[in-house]
Amino acid sequence: MQDQLFTYPNPDAPYPIPAFKRTAFLKPLITNPLIEVGDYTYYDDPEAPEAFEHKNVLYHYDFLGDRLFIGKFCALATGVTFIMNGANHDMSGISTYPFAIMGGSWGEGFDIDAFRQLSRGDTCIGNDIWMGRNARVMPGVTIGSGAIIGAEAVVASDVPDYAIVVGNPGRVIRRRFADDVVDRLLALAWWDWPIEQITRHRQLIQGADVAALEAACQSFSSSEGA
User: Fold this and answer.
1) How far is CA 98 from CA 11, 23, 54, 59, 104, in A?
2) Running DSSP on this structure, what letter comes out for residue 221?
3) pLDDT tens digits for 24-78?
4) DSSP codes joined into one string, 75-115
5) Could you tell me if 41 and 97 are in contact, meaning their C-beta atoms sit under 8 angstroms apart?
6) Is 89 marked active-site?
7) Which of 97, 90, 81 minimizes the C-alpha distance to 156?
8) Which of 35, 159, 176, 198 has its C-alpha lying 20 to 30 A from 143's C-alpha?
9) Is 58 left (phi over 0), alpha (psi -120 to 50) or beta?
């Protein structure tokens, strides 16, 4: 069977299901250069998935420069929210009230560089991650590939690859696979394969036979190197 017989969605077209526009690929909808989303990651929202970068990425101010990275093949349910570093308040003094941003003489003496030092860094979401309804990710968090974030979870600390997180505060209840299997899956990194090979081996990717997936990877890697 030839590769041209396989079909797959266009990652640069926002609606993979044209008649069902509540589900949209995010990559072609993002305009903010501080947000980067990989191919085939989608957001589902019955109201306006097109507004994701404005409604779901909050307190994201250009002058702070923190970035949001979301990998490939992630599934984000309605209401998934990323809180960025602009939400931070200075806790070193008596009051945490943000006087400086309110204008007037309150802004005198505001040290933007000192405020930037409060930043917890970029927020990094790996590949093949499923995030449940209204899950919330706090600033500077890294979520490993293959993770599952439960509905309503509040993720305030880093999440290992292929872990399942639930609750507020979010906690890891288990990993989806044994450590050695996780290592093999990360080495395969199927999400980085050519889309033709992902499509050809889709059923193996959706299955649970890691050895078969490794064999498939070796097969097409050998043919490319021939």
Assistant:
1) 41, 37, 22, 13, 13
2) H
3) 999 999 999 999 999 999 999 999 999 999 999 999 999 999 999 999 999 999 9
4) EE-TT-EEE-GGG----SSS----GGGG-GGGGTT--HHHH
5) no
6) yes
7) 81
8) 198
9) beta
Contact 209, 203 (CB under 8 A): no
pLDDT tens digits, residue range 107-128? 898 888 888 888 999 999 999 9
Q: Which of 54, 60, 89, 201 is catalytic?
A: 89
Distances (CA, A) of 55 to 42, 58, 91, 140, 155: 15, 7, 27, 19, 18
The identity of residue 161, as a single letter, is D
Chain centre to alpha carbon of residue 47: 21
Cβ–Cβ under 8 Å, residues 204 and 216? yes
| Tally of CB atoms within 10 A around 45 | 20
Tell me the whole-structure pTM to 2 decimals. 0.93
CA-nearest of 177, 179, 147 to 164 is 147
Q: Which amino acid is at 105?
A: S
Residues contacting 132, CB < 8 A, separation 6+: 77, 80, 148, 149, 150, 151, 152, 153
